[in-house]
Design a protein that fits this description.
2 copies of one chain form a homodimer. Chain A is built from 6 helices and 5 strands. Chain A is of the alpha+beta class. In chain A, helix 2 packs across helix 5. At the A-B interface, helix 1, helix 2, strand 1, helix 3 and helix 5 of A face helix 1, helix 2, strand 1, helix 3 and helix 5 of B.
Chain lengths: 192, 192
């Protein structure tokens, strides 16, 4: 697959086939994604792979509850539609994805958000190149329960940046609309 | 070019041919990069394109001076080698790149670092697909002089996230070493 094709193919996918994603495939994708750049080649990203629907449901419930708590305490802003959605017990923030990859890293790393976002884009492309869909689920990042975090192998020092769902897409969704690039200024070499 | 080839080709490049990068090529790359995902498809990235060596030098000097000032006031930490480098008048943080693209956006956007980093990776790939090299230059982000910011079309509300240099590589640098992916835990479906 060429990059131009891949660019068109990479979409945020929220509806998946039942089919599980093999751990060998996940390992291949993560191996390929090590080529992502990071500040000073520091490579701060760590991964937690959840290949279990029951655990995914528990993570969804935990994240929803914490986000609603933050909203109630005015620590988070949410649109009324999101509040409704999060209060709906049947809503799984990870949709019906068979697998979630959490990209996490040390709170001490100043560039962690950026390093993990670069890593996320590599994982998204490496997945798309294998016919897999992905979506970054910001709603799924609020995992605080010490028991759940321990199950994930995450000590207190680690911060979740990017929860990515991954699976075989039911269909390739239509592209969402994009604006033309907003270029504020072009400063060109003076002629002469 | 396939994605596998592109993955191997995308490197942080710090040494460029004299050859300028045409504005049509930059426009093509930015157009292609609009396909980058962003939180809620909010598309907050804005661009400033500096295709002028004299302005690039001024931006380098401004950023170096501010970073050294922050360091002196203990607002930034820098290794002794970096301090030496920044004090060297001949050192241009953008190396000899003929073009710099600043990815910027509103301070009000909570996910700005992540949105701009995803955009940066798309620009890096779109550039590599055209035989161009890029490098994220964190040292070049400290632009505060109101006159310079006005020249860049940047009001107070905007924050620089990603200064990217772009140009035709003198040579394709050897890949920098990468560790194997650090997977903290795999949680798999219980069998039976």
């Amino acid at each position: 697959m060429t990059f131009a094709e891949l660019l068109q193919k990479r979409r945020s996918v929220r509806d998946y086939e039942q089919k599980a994603v093999g751990i060998d495939t996940i390992n291949e994708i993560l191996q390929e994604a090590t080529l992502a750049p990071s500040a000073s080649n520091n490579q701060p990203c760590r991964f937690v792979v959840i290949n279990c629907r029951e655990t995914i449901k528990r993570l969804s419930d935990e994240s929803k509850a914490n986000l609603l708590k933050d909203f109630a305490q005015k620590k988070a802003s949410l649109s009324p539609e999101y509040v409704e959605l999060l209060k709906n017990e049947k809503f799984n923030v990870f949709y019906n994805a068979p697998c979630v990859i959490y990209i996490v890293g040390s709170r001490a790393v100043h560039s962690l958000d950026i390093d993990c976002a670069l890593m996320a884009s590599y994982i998204m492309f490496a997945a798309a190149a294998r016919g897999l869909g992905t979506c970054w689920i910001g709603l799924g990042e609020h995992i605080r329960d010490p028991k759940l975090r321990a199950e994930m192998g995450m000590d207190e020092n680690l911060r979740i940046v990017a929860p990515l769902i991954i699976g075989y897409p039911k269909e390739n969704p239509a592209p969402s609309a994009r604006n033309a690039p907003k270029i504020l200024r072009v400063i060109s070499q003076a002629k002469g």
